[in-house]
Amino acid sequence: MARYRGPVCRLCRRENIEICFKSERGFSDKCGFAKRGYPPGQHGQSRRAKISEYGIQLREKQKVKRVYGVLEKQFRRYFKMAERQKGITGENLLMLLERRLDNVVYRLNLAASRRQSRQLVTHGHIRINGKKVNIPSYLVSEGDLIELRERSKNISPVLSSLELVKKNPPPSWLGFNSDKMQGKVIAFPRRDEIQFPVNEKLIVELYSK
Protein backbone atom coordinates (compact mmCIF):
# COMPACT_ATOMS: atom_id res chain seq x y z
CA MET A 1 0.00 0.00 0.00
CA ALA A 2 1.27 3.48 -0.89
CA ARG A 3 2.41 5.73 1.92
CA TYR A 4 4.68 8.69 2.52
CA ARG A 5 8.29 7.54 2.87
CA GLY A 6 10.10 10.87 3.19
CA PRO A 7 11.39 12.69 6.30
CA VAL A 8 8.53 13.12 8.77
CA CYS A 9 9.97 16.31 10.30
CA ARG A 10 9.54 17.98 6.92
CA LEU A 11 5.81 17.42 7.36
CA CYS A 12 5.98 18.89 10.87
CA ARG A 13 7.46 22.07 9.45
CA ARG A 14 4.97 22.21 6.58
CA GLU A 15 1.93 21.91 8.85
CA ASN A 16 3.40 24.05 11.65
CA ILE A 17 2.77 21.31 14.22
CA GLU A 18 4.89 18.49 15.62
CA ILE A 19 3.38 15.57 13.71
CA CYS A 20 6.00 13.05 14.83
CA PHE A 21 5.33 13.91 18.53
CA LYS A 22 8.94 13.32 19.52
CA SER A 23 8.71 15.79 22.41
CA GLU A 24 5.77 13.80 23.74
CA ARG A 25 8.11 10.81 23.89
CA GLY A 26 11.05 12.70 25.34
CA PHE A 27 12.90 13.51 22.11
CA SER A 28 12.04 17.20 21.67
CA ASP A 29 15.52 18.15 20.44
CA LYS A 30 15.39 15.52 17.69
CA CYS A 31 12.53 17.07 15.70
CA GLY A 32 13.40 19.46 12.89
CA PHE A 33 10.33 21.55 13.76
CA ALA A 34 11.92 22.53 17.09
CA LYS A 35 15.08 23.69 15.31
CA ARG A 36 13.52 25.26 12.22
CA GLY A 37 9.96 26.36 12.88
CA TYR A 38 9.28 27.51 9.33
CA PRO A 39 8.08 25.69 6.18
CA PRO A 40 10.58 23.57 4.23
CA GLY A 41 11.96 24.64 0.89
CA GLN A 42 13.99 27.47 -0.59
CA HIS A 43 11.47 30.17 0.35
CA GLY A 44 10.41 28.77 3.71
CA GLN A 45 11.83 31.66 5.73
CA SER A 46 10.40 34.39 3.52
CA ARG A 47 7.16 36.12 4.44
CA ARG A 48 4.09 34.00 3.77
CA ALA A 49 1.27 35.21 1.56
CA LYS A 50 -2.16 35.52 3.12
CA ILE A 51 -3.89 32.12 3.08
CA SER A 52 -7.41 31.89 1.64
CA GLU A 53 -10.33 30.24 3.39
CA TYR A 54 -9.90 27.21 1.16
CA GLY A 55 -6.17 27.11 1.97
CA ILE A 56 -6.90 27.08 5.72
CA GLN A 57 -9.36 24.21 5.31
CA LEU A 58 -6.92 22.31 3.13
CA ARG A 59 -4.06 22.67 5.60
CA GLU A 60 -6.29 21.35 8.41
CA LYS A 61 -7.15 18.28 6.35
CA GLN A 62 -3.52 17.70 5.39
CA LYS A 63 -2.46 18.00 9.03
CA VAL A 64 -4.88 15.29 10.18
CA LYS A 65 -3.94 13.01 7.26
CA ARG A 66 -0.26 13.33 8.08
CA VAL A 67 -0.65 12.82 11.80
CA TYR A 68 -2.38 9.49 11.24
CA GLY A 69 -0.36 8.52 8.17
CA VAL A 70 -3.37 8.25 5.84
CA LEU A 71 -3.41 9.12 2.14
CA GLU A 72 -6.21 10.96 0.33
CA LYS A 73 -8.25 8.05 -1.02
CA GLN A 74 -8.39 6.30 2.33
CA PHE A 75 -9.09 9.56 4.15
CA ARG A 76 -12.13 10.18 1.92
CA ARG A 77 -13.43 6.71 2.77
CA TYR A 78 -13.17 7.53 6.48
CA PHE A 79 -15.04 10.77 5.87
CA LYS A 80 -17.88 8.96 4.08
CA MET A 81 -18.08 6.46 6.94
CA ALA A 82 -18.22 9.35 9.42
CA GLU A 83 -21.05 10.97 7.44
CA ARG A 84 -23.13 7.79 7.63
CA GLN A 85 -22.74 7.49 11.41
CA LYS A 86 -24.97 9.22 13.94
CA GLY A 87 -23.52 12.29 15.62
CA ILE A 88 -21.20 15.06 14.44
CA THR A 89 -19.36 14.16 11.24
CA GLY A 90 -16.06 15.83 12.15
CA GLU A 91 -15.88 14.14 15.54
CA ASN A 92 -16.88 10.80 14.02
CA LEU A 93 -14.00 11.16 11.56
CA LEU A 94 -11.43 11.71 14.31
CA MET A 95 -12.81 8.81 16.35
CA LEU A 96 -12.49 6.45 13.37
CA LEU A 97 -8.88 7.49 12.87
CA GLU A 98 -8.17 6.98 16.58
CA ARG A 99 -9.51 3.43 16.34
CA ARG A 100 -6.99 2.43 13.67
CA LEU A 101 -4.85 -0.43 14.93
CA ASP A 102 -1.55 1.35 14.23
CA ASN A 103 -2.75 4.33 16.26
CA VAL A 104 -3.92 2.10 19.13
CA VAL A 105 -0.53 0.35 19.28
CA TYR A 106 1.11 3.78 19.44
CA ARG A 107 -1.31 5.00 22.11
CA LEU A 108 -0.54 1.92 24.23
CA ASN A 109 3.17 2.90 24.14
CA LEU A 110 4.15 -0.30 22.36
CA ALA A 111 5.86 1.90 19.75
CA ALA A 112 7.63 5.26 19.87
CA SER A 113 5.75 6.63 16.85
CA ARG A 114 2.82 5.80 14.60
CA ARG A 115 5.27 4.91 11.86
CA GLN A 116 6.94 2.38 14.13
CA SER A 117 3.60 1.00 15.28
CA ARG A 118 2.57 0.55 11.64
CA GLN A 119 5.72 -1.49 11.12
CA LEU A 120 4.97 -3.65 14.16
CA VAL A 121 1.52 -4.38 12.78
CA THR A 122 2.56 -5.11 9.19
CA HIS A 123 5.39 -7.40 10.36
CA GLY A 124 2.91 -9.55 12.29
CA HIS A 125 3.94 -8.68 15.85
CA ILE A 126 0.40 -7.77 17.02
CA ARG A 127 -2.42 -10.06 18.12
CA ILE A 128 -6.06 -9.07 18.62
CA ASN A 129 -8.11 -11.47 20.72
CA GLY A 130 -5.39 -14.05 20.16
CA LYS A 131 -5.34 -13.78 16.36
CA LYS A 132 -2.67 -12.13 14.22
CA VAL A 133 -3.79 -8.91 12.54
CA ASN A 134 -1.33 -7.29 10.15
CA ILE A 135 -3.57 -4.54 8.74
CA PRO A 136 -2.71 -1.08 10.16
CA SER A 137 -6.14 0.33 9.20
CA TYR A 138 -8.03 -2.36 11.14
CA LEU A 139 -10.63 -0.63 13.36
CA VAL A 140 -10.65 -1.92 16.93
CA SER A 141 -13.91 -2.44 18.80
CA GLU A 142 -14.91 -2.28 22.45
CA GLY A 143 -13.61 -5.28 24.37
CA ASP A 144 -10.79 -6.07 21.93
CA LEU A 145 -7.60 -7.37 23.54
CA ILE A 146 -4.41 -6.12 21.89
CA GLU A 147 -1.10 -7.76 22.67
CA LEU A 148 2.33 -8.56 21.28
CA ARG A 149 3.08 -12.08 20.18
CA GLU A 150 5.20 -13.84 22.79
CA ARG A 151 8.54 -13.74 20.96
CA SER A 152 8.09 -10.03 20.12
CA LYS A 153 7.90 -8.85 23.73
CA ASN A 154 11.65 -8.48 24.11
CA ILE A 155 12.51 -6.56 20.95
CA SER A 156 14.39 -3.36 21.78
CA PRO A 157 12.01 -0.78 20.18
CA VAL A 158 9.14 -2.08 22.29
CA LEU A 159 11.14 -2.20 25.52
CA SER A 160 12.46 1.34 25.05
CA SER A 161 8.98 2.64 24.29
CA LEU A 162 7.46 0.96 27.35
CA GLU A 163 9.83 2.96 29.57
CA LEU A 164 7.80 6.05 28.66
CA VAL A 165 4.45 4.69 29.90
CA LYS A 166 4.61 6.55 33.23
CA LYS A 167 5.42 9.83 31.50
CA ASN A 168 2.84 9.39 28.76
CA PRO A 169 0.09 6.98 29.95
CA PRO A 170 -2.50 5.60 27.50
CA PRO A 171 -5.81 7.50 27.22
CA SER A 172 -8.73 6.51 29.44
CA TRP A 173 -10.47 4.56 26.67
CA LEU A 174 -7.57 2.09 26.65
CA GLY A 175 -6.47 -0.16 29.51
CA PHE A 176 -2.92 -1.45 29.65
CA ASN A 177 -1.17 -4.19 31.64
CA SER A 178 2.56 -3.45 31.39
CA ASP A 179 3.53 -6.82 32.92
CA LYS A 180 1.71 -8.77 30.22
CA MET A 181 2.26 -6.06 27.55
CA GLN A 182 -1.44 -6.29 26.91
CA GLY A 183 -3.97 -3.57 26.16
CA LYS A 184 -7.74 -3.57 26.07
CA VAL A 185 -10.27 -1.28 24.38
CA ILE A 186 -12.46 -0.22 27.30
CA ALA A 187 -14.63 2.18 25.32
CA PHE A 188 -14.61 4.16 22.09
CA PRO A 189 -12.42 7.29 22.15
CA ARG A 190 -13.87 10.71 22.95
CA ARG A 191 -13.23 13.99 21.17
CA ASP A 192 -11.59 15.57 24.23
CA GLU A 193 -8.90 12.86 24.19
CA ILE A 194 -7.40 13.93 20.86
CA GLN A 195 -3.85 15.02 21.68
CA PHE A 196 -3.14 17.60 19.01
CA PRO A 197 -4.87 20.87 18.03
CA VAL A 198 -7.31 20.31 15.18
CA ASN A 199 -10.47 22.02 13.99
CA GLU A 200 -12.38 19.19 12.35
CA LYS A 201 -15.19 21.55 11.30
CA LEU A 202 -12.86 22.99 8.66
CA ILE A 203 -12.43 19.51 7.15
CA VAL A 204 -16.20 19.03 6.99
CA GLU A 205 -16.57 22.42 5.31
CA LEU A 206 -13.88 21.49 2.78
CA TYR A 207 -15.57 18.23 1.76
CA SER A 208 -19.01 19.85 1.76
CA LYS A 209 -18.14 22.17 -1.16
Automatic annotation (TrEMBL):
Domain called Small ribosomal subunit protein uS4 N-terminal: residue spans: 3-98
Subunit structure: Part of the 30S ribosomal subunit. Contacts protein S5. The interaction surface between S4 and S5 is involved in control of translational fidelity.
Residues of the RNA-binding S4 domain: 99-163
Signal peptide span: none
GO biological process: ribosomal small subunit biogenesis; translation
A molecular function (GO) term: rRNA binding
Annotated function: With S5 and S12 plays an important role in translational accuracy.
Transmembrane segments: none
One cellular-component annotation, GO: small ribosomal subunit
Entries under Pfam families matching the protein: Ribosomal_S4, S4
Protein name: Small ribosomal subunit protein uS4
Gene3D superfamilies, sorted: Ribosomal Protein S4 Delta 41, Chain A, domain 1, RNA-binding S4 domain
Entry keywords, A to Z: Ribonucleoprotein, Ribosomal protein, RNA-binding, rRNA-binding
rRNA-binding in keyword set: yes
Similarity section: Belongs to the universal ribosomal protein uS4 family.
SUPFAM superfamilies membership: Alpha-L RNA-binding motif
